Amino acid sequence: MPLDTLAAGHRFLPEQSLIRPQNILPDNTRCLKSSEEPEKEGIMAYSEKNIAGIFHNRAEKYQYETCIRYKKDGRYVPISWKEMQSMVTRAGLGLISLGVEPADMVGIFSENCWQWLVADLAALSIGATDAPIYATNSAAEAAYIVNDSLTKVLFVSDKDHLDRILSVKARLSPLQFIVTFDEIDVPGDHVISFDELMRRGDASVDKSVFDSRLQGILPEGLATLIYTSGTTGQPKGVMLSHDNFVTNVMQAYASHSIIGHRDESLALLPWSHSLGRTVSLYLMIQIGATINLAESFSTVLENMQEIRPTLVVSVPRLFEKLHSGIMSKADKAPPLKKKLFEWAVAVSDRAVDYLVQKKPMPGTIRMQYDLAEMLVFSKLRYTLGLDRIRIFISGGGPLATEIDRFFNGIGVAVHNGYGLTETCTVTNVNRFDVFEFGSVGPALPDTQVRLAQDGEILIKGPQVMKGYFNKPDDTKAVFTDDGWFMTGDIGRIDDRGCLYITDRKKDIIVTAGGKNIAPQNIENSLVSDLFIEQCVVIGEGKKFLSALIVPNFKELTDYVKKQGVSFNSNEDLVKKPEIIAFYEARIKDLMKDYARVEQIRRFCILPREFSIDTGELTPTLKIKRKIVNMNYAAEIDGMYREGE
Question: Does pTM surpass 0.90?
Answer without folding.
Answer: no
